[in-house]
């Protein structure tokens, strides 16, 4: 009987009032919208950071590739909905799914203090991850992983002065501002939630605006779905949060059961078929021509061939210029990997490294039983040692080198006390030079004892970004800085040559002068673009001083690789070796020109590539983009995206060789029968 007056009294309760009271008492929707709008204000800085990161990526490559894929010339030719289609999933997640999740969570956990804390943690962690990936993309053109960040931490721990070189203070301040603003809004939301969670609220401006944002996001997505229905999807269309998280957990390993059943000999046969290569055989012209010679490997840090042309003008590098008169030069030489310990691994073993995170030696299941220059020489009675300014401890490198046959480790930092230099590079130079003096001391001791030796000298002074070490004021040109660092190290090479001359052993010493890799980041070189293979990262100098072998300034005319250095030295030294397990050939073997040579950069850049029949190819794994070029220059019109047949051919060739190589090194490192 009370129902009829209740509805009849329109002055007291209208239809809206009934709905409002019902919603307020049963679902409290207005309250949840009001509360959620406060918390989601803190999400806006993070969302803006995500959208900016996505724009940086698609502006670099995405717009251009999509335009060409649909038959348009340039990025400006795209329609607005075609450009906006790249952000469709980000809008869906950032403006619709996440806010709706917050509404549901705030309703389900109403009265609880846990869900604001959880929301705050997600907000801050995602902001930190996006910031890390933004900085990584700026530096190297790809996202980073947790494993790579740990390696960077180890490097910064050893070289503390480098922290603000790679992460400038201004960038850190911007990130802290984002965190402070986001955290402040979150705190404000929490306090408001505690004060008002038990009160019935009328729909306020925040709730209305929040509802309008959800409606607008849904409308934009609907319009995009209709207008861009026929727009091809690429990896650039993936959600930026999904890309960032996927890269963070690490997706660079090739895990394939395709070749698991093959024996080691069958894996090598498979690899030779893939690369069109053959096992090396002794050449009577060079075999044993340096029998009984000592060996010094002088491996530069981060020097590309464009800074040191071994067949070019060396008048400002007197030591190299003098040694070149009786040396083999390789002006078309390339590293196997853009990472130091993996590049040196190839120099010492004639093997490609594993492309992904685990190289089976720093986290070993057993002991290494594969080919190795140092192991072969140690077995022949050579004393093997490594000399460096600082301990090789970034990734358990000492274990790696010990497994490859190096018996002794000598560090210049053990002789340099204090840190009193005004410039960090001066401290590094002192440590490197101290290691050089220890090398010279040991050379004299070896000569006095008539002891053959093989020494690996790894100075760190030219590690990028290159410092300005000139007396001139503010040398900003990158290559000029690199050349100045070369002059310094050429002086050290000259000291070694003079020392050997004084001991009477120069003419029975092989000296390898090479670089581990080239430049790898935008901090190393502002012209570095990333997201594609860069010649300046892989094309490196190589000169092998080999007195008395009749080379007479022999220049290798075809493309060579780090995997060719160990076979060259061992042939000259007349040392038997596991020839059937080498993946390279002596430099004078013309069959090098006919093979496929690989460049493995996924561990650092997320990109691999190869050279075959005079052309180069690359595959960006994360962006699902392949490209072929007549020169080691990418970014032109030749990019291929799935499902293009050329994309499948390039990516398939790289996937297969990486999968086989992963198994080869797993066998060598697990004490399985060879």
Summarize the structure.
With 674 residues, this protein is an alpha/beta fold. The protein contains 22 helices and 15 strands. 44% of the residues are buried.
Explain this structure.
This protein has 674 residues and is an alpha/beta fold. Helix content is 47%, strand content 10%. The chain has an 8-stranded mixed β-sheet with strand order 5-4-6-1-7-8-2-9. α4 crosses α10 (169-196) and α6 runs antiparallel to α11 (205-227). It is elongated and about 90 Å long. The protein starts with a helix and ends in a 6-residue tail after the last helix. The relative contact order is 0.13.
What is the topology?
Blueprint: H1 3-8, H2 15-27, H3 29-41, H4 43-69, H5 80-84, H6 88-108, H7 114-140, H8 146-158, H9 163-166, H10 169-196, H11 205-227, H12 240-249, H13 264-275, E1 294-300, H14 318-323, E2 327-329, E3 333-334, H15 340-349, H16 373-379, E4 383-388, H17 397-403, E5 408-411, H18 424-448, E6 453-458, H19 478-503, E7 509-515, H20 535-538, E8 542-545, E9 554-555, E10 560-561, H21 565-573, E11 597-601, E12 607-612, E13 615-620, E14 625-629, E15 639-640, H22 645-668
Parallel strand pairs: 1-6, 1-7, 2-9, 3-10, 4-5, 4-6
Antiparallel strand pairs: 2-8, 7-8, 11-12, 12-13, 13-14, 14-15
